[in-house]
Specification:
- The structure is a single chain.
- With about 110 residues, the protein is mainly beta.
- It has one domain (about 10-105): OB fold (Dihydrolipoamide Acetyltransferase, E2P) (Beta Barrel).
- It is about 10% helix and about 60% strand.
- It contains one helix and six strands.
- It has one helix at about 60-70, and strands at about 10-15, 20, 30-40, 45-60, 75-90, 95-105.
- The protein has a five-stranded mixed barrel.
- Strand 5 (about 75-90) and strand 6 form a beta hairpin.
- The longest helix is centred in the middle third of the chain and has 10 residues, at about 60-70.
- It starts with 7 loop residues before the first strand and ends with a strand.
């Protein structure tokens, strides 16, 4: 168990077209929103769906894969780690964000 410290695995559908950014140092960054669904029955026995949205980031070669093959609606599997950061918005308010940094990506839909 000592090797499992910060690991996330998700399978879901891409919510919108990935956003690609090339930074000043030439590094490529891809941002993706991913929807995962959980199904359950409520107290009346009716099937319910709970959708969760996740913010993903990919760097370098993983960003190249995202740019070439990942589009809105595609089903993908990812493995990565949780990362948190903060920034100041245009109004000067400090904002906090948690994202998943992709280490592995698998394209599931054709």
């Amino acid at each position: 168990m000592s090797t499992i410290k910060n690991k996330v695995q998700l399978i879901g559908n891409v919510g919108q077209e990935p956003t690609m950014t090339i930074l000043e140092d030439g590094k490529k960054l891809a941002r993706i929103s991913l929807a995962t669904n959980e199904y359950y029955n409520n107290a009346q026995g009716e099937k319910q769906t709970n959708t969760s949205w996740h913010s993903l980031v990919a760097w370098g070669k993983k960003a190249d894969i995202v740019e070439k093959y990942v589009t809105k609606g595609k089903e993908i599997a990812i493995e990565g780690k949780l990362t948190s950061r903060s920034y100041e918005d245009k109004g000067g308010v400090k904002r906090y964000m948690t994202e998943i940094t992709i280490s592995e990506i698998l394209l599931l839909s054709k």
